[in-house]
Amino acid sequence: MDPAVTAALIAAPVAITAAGAAFAAGLVQGRAAQRGPVDAVRRQHQRDAYATFLAALHTYEREAEFGVCERLAQAEFQAAGVQPTPTDLNSRTLELVAKVPIKEVLARAAVVELEGPEPVADAGVEAMLAVCEVHYSAVASNTALNDRVRNVLSEHDEVYPALKKFTELASVELNRAAG
User: Fold this and answer.
1) CA–CA separation, 5 vs 11, rounded Å?
2) What local confidence, expressed as pLDDT, does residue 169 receive?
3) What is the pTM of this model?
4) Do the beta carbons of residue 58 and residue 164 sit within 8 Å?
5) Quick check: 67 and 73 in contact, CB under 8 A?
6) What is d(CA 49, CA 107) in angstroms, rounded to the nearest whole number?
């Protein structure tokens, strides 16, 4: 066989393989270029979801703190010129704890749960449940007053650790995504 024909027969499959590889690389690069902005928008949405949830948790944790509500109750009684009994003070304090809205925490937790990933979503649910426990302990009318006070104090002690766990996992996720 003619050496030129042999060289052409050998070069043709190599050229076809090289063209196929170049085509595949172009597809991958094109998909990556298309996905890049979408991923960036998704990451920003995730960051916003985490941040707004965290802000709602901090707000609730601060406003539902028993001592804060107790000082507000005491101020109300003083403004009315009344010296409350411990029972009256505790009752009003629990009412104030119960009035701290949890709606924002619930709404923001739902978005975090959708955004994920699972460890961050689970930590978000854990923090949301800690908030719910404080709220439901404060409104539990079928429980003795002193038990309600103890429950609210105990349940509130669980909010910050859950908030901190969520913060740590969300931070790891966002930093992983950025790197």
Assistant:
1) 10
2) 96
3) 0.77
4) no
5) no
6) 10
